[in-house]
Structure formats: structure tokens, C-alpha cells
Amino acid sequence: MANLVRLPTLVALACAAAIGLAASSWRSVGTIACLLALVGWWWGSARLDRLDHSALRAEVGRAETALVVVTSAPRRGKFDLKMAVRVRRFGLLALDEAAQLELPLGRAPPQGGVLEVRAEAKLPHGPSHGFDERTWLRRHGIHVVLAGDRWRLVGHRHGLGGFGDRLRAWLASSVAGGLHGERRGVLLGVVLGDEEGLNDRLRTDFRASGLYHLLAVSGQNVALVAGGALVLAWLLGIPRWLGQLGALASIGGYVLAVGAQPSVLRAGVAGALGSLAWLTARSTDRWYFLLLGALALLAWNPYVLFDAGFQLSFAAVVAIFTLAPRLEQRLEGYPLPRWLRQAIAISTACGLATAPILWLQFHAIPLLAVPANAAAAPAVVPLLGLAMSAAVVHPLAPGVSALLAQADGLCATYLAACAKGFGGLPLAQIRSGWAAAALLLLAGGAWAYACRDGRAEGRLPDHRYRPAESEPGRAQAPRPNR
Predict the structure, then answer these.
(1) Residue of 301, 296, 244, 271 lying closest to 2 (CA atoms)
(2) Among candidates 460, 453, 378, which has minimal Cα distance to 411?
């Protein structure tokens, strides 16, 4: 609602007073629901007003020496380096605002580094070739681009962000120790969501094959982190409640190391709620976990509703909850192992749910996502398990950790081969509107046929028992009218 219409504070107070006067009881469900909806609408409006405020916009066109903190891993483009920063000072103006820093190609500053850079404040680019950079950045609270020419590292950030930076660097060095090139890039992409080690061709193959979701940290990663903490507690003989606290700490540290991605934040909220439910002896509800994760993300930034990562992540999870079990049930009669039935059902459900989003956001739909995910499935869990094991063993036995990383490199090579094999095929991806319409009609026809077939299987036979003519002592039953 806040994305549609902003609700001023005075109007919100007036509406709350009107609801209170019209309500017969403050304890009624309808009154509480209306008040909660009003509070959410007002909060979303306040957050959007805060995100739309920019002190740097008045400095557009000026070049000054700025003090910035790098808050994300630099993205290497064809002509420059781009990274998200927090601007602490621009010339004589002291502030705390998000911006995008653009630097010439070359050595990239580290994430968490405090830079002194000579830069010019510019407005982001408008719509071009189907992408509106200005709108995309505005939805992340960024209104100004700093075009820098030279920079100097003057320190590193501290606090919780600095701890996450150090944890990320430690994880990268432990899980990919001794690996280089493609293997290191794929491994860091799956474990930390860092795609910078992948070349453009391999990144395109991951997108075309339908395996690009493996490079976005998801619930599977968080589940393995929490499960590893519980297994370690069990091996050491630590009480279960202490192991659950360790799982909570592990989830929090992993989310800090990976960064504020919608998929990892959703999975982190769900994992933390699972541990808290066990500690407080409460029942669990996966829909509650999912909706609470959405609430946390939207309360912080209502613009995230338009983010492709948010839409794809939640659409895929809803499909796993609702559609995947039915598809897996339909596959039970086929001679397939259980893990393969699950992989086919989940990838098919997610592909159907995310195809409209992929078309609207990127004008591309992968056609071979189901076989590609079925082929890649045997390597995903071993890759994550070896990576987490290497990270745990690294402080005690660096040599063993390096051996585990080398073995993990084989899994990364296999995933890259799957992406290249399926993504390089001629019809791996649809980019034509006519082809997308034909695919939609084909999917609709297949769905209608499956529903018709299911009704035919579930229909009771339309006959009554009639004794055979040769049975003695039995009268011939009348034939029913049809």
C-alpha cells in the first residue's frame, strides 16, 4: 500500500481515531486487523520517505574529496568498477548516505575498506536498453553516483559490519584455499553468493541453463550451517540447548558474511525461528516462517517488493510448499530414485513459478532448467558440506582444510560443466515474445490434460453389480438407462 500511496502521519492518526470510534470492541479481530494494517501502511510510508531523502543530490555536478566506506564486493564491468558505499564526508559536508562508487578498471578496493577518493557527484543513468539504473538504485536508497578517478585506502570499518567483513574474508580463504580460476569462482559463488570470480561467458551459461539460483545463497546453505553446528555439538557431547544457541550464532555469522541478500535473509529468519521454536518448546509452521521473513524485509525496505531477487526467492519457496509435493506424487509410479523424483519435482515447480518473473524482469526463460537441475543436484550438497567442513577444520588443521577444498573443487568443476553443457545448447533459453507465448500455450495445454487425466483416474466406474447369467437362482438385473 505504501508503494501505491504514501500515508502521512496526521492522516494515519485520524484514521486510527475513526477506527476506534467506529469499533464496538478493541478486542475484536476486525478492529485489531484494521489497526495493524494502518500501522503497516504508515510505517511503510515513513520508510519510503526516509529512503527517498538525499543530501547528496544537492551536490550533483561538483567534484570533491570524499570519505566513503565500501559496503559490498566490487562488481567488475567492461569499463569500470562499481560498488555500493556509505558516504561519510563529501568535501566539507558531513553525512551518512548510501551511494554508488565508480572507479576505473584496475585494483579493486576491499569490502569494508574506508577510502579517500576524489570523485564527482552525478545522477544515475536513466532507462537504456531495457534497464533503468536510476530507478533500480533509488529502490536501494541510492540517488547519486560518485565517479572517482583515484582512491586511497585509509582504514577499515569497525563494529558489526567490520566483523562481517573479516568473517567473509576468512570463509573465502578457508573454503577455497589453494583454488584458482573457474573452480574458485564457482565455489565462492555457491557458498558466499560472490560472482566476481566468474567470467561473463560462464555467468551467461548459468543463467541460460537455469542454474543461476545456485549462485544466490538460499535456505539449503543456511540449513547446512545450522545442521553442522548441531552435529558438532553432538560430537563434542554438548547439550542440545547449547547446540541450538550455537546454531543461532552460526546462522547470524553466516548472514553477516554473505550480506543483505533477500534469499539469505529469508532463510536466516526461518533458521533462527526454527532454533528459537525448539528452545521455547513451541510448534513450527513453515508458512509463518516464510511470511515473517517477508515482513522483516518489507518493513526495512518496502521497495524490495519490486526486487527480482525477492520475487524469485519467495515465488520459488511457495512453489516448493504447494506444487512440488503434488508433482513428486505424480512421479511415484516411475522407476526413478527418490532423490531424482524430488529434484525433478522441485525444479519443475520452481521453474513454473519463476518463469513469469524471469520474463518480466529479464525477458528470458530457461527451457532446460529441469534436466540441468537434476544433473547438478548430486553435487550441490557435497559441495556445501565439504565447504563447511573445510571452514570448521581450517583453524585446527589448515592442511586438511586445503585437501577438502581441493576435493570441493571437483564438485565446482562438475557444476560448471553442467552449466556449460546445458547453457550452451541452441534452445536453452527463450528470448522471443512469440516463443514465450507458444511456451505458455503449451504449458497450459499440458496442465489441462494433466487435470483431465487426474479426474479420469479418480472417477468411480459407472456400473452396478449384475450377476452372471450362468449363476443359478439369480435374477437378471435390469440394465440401467444411460
Answers:
(1) 301
(2) 378
pTM of the model: 0.77
Helices 219-235 and 262-279: angle between axes, nearest 10 degrees: 40
Q: To which H or E segment does residue 139 belong?
A: none
How far apart, in whole angstroms, are the C-alpha atoms of residue 347 and residue 128? 33
Of 343, 377, 384, nearest to 226 by C-alpha is: 384
Measured at the alpha carbon of residue 414, what is the angle toward residues 425 and 384, in degrees to the nearest 5? 125
Residue 323's φ and ψ, nearest 5 degrees, are: -90, -35
**CA separation for the pair 138, 303 (Å, rounded):** 9
Counting residues of the chain whose pLDDT is more than 90, the rounded percentage is 17
Grid cell listed for 407: 576435493
Q: Which three cell numbers stand for residue 167?
A: 568473517
What is the rounded CA–CA span in Å between residue 102 and residue 80?
6
Cβ(216)–Cβ(251) under 8 Å?
no
Say how many CA atoms lie within 13 Å of 219 toward its Cβ: 18
Q: What are the cell numbers at 346?
A: 522441485
CB-based contacts of 145, cutoff 8 Å, min separation 6: 99, 100, 101, 102, 121, 122, 123, 124, 137
pLDDT in tens, 306-319: 988 888 888 888 98
| pLDDT tens digit sequence for 120-169 | 999 998 887 777 888 989 988 899 999 988 899 998 888 888 888 888 88
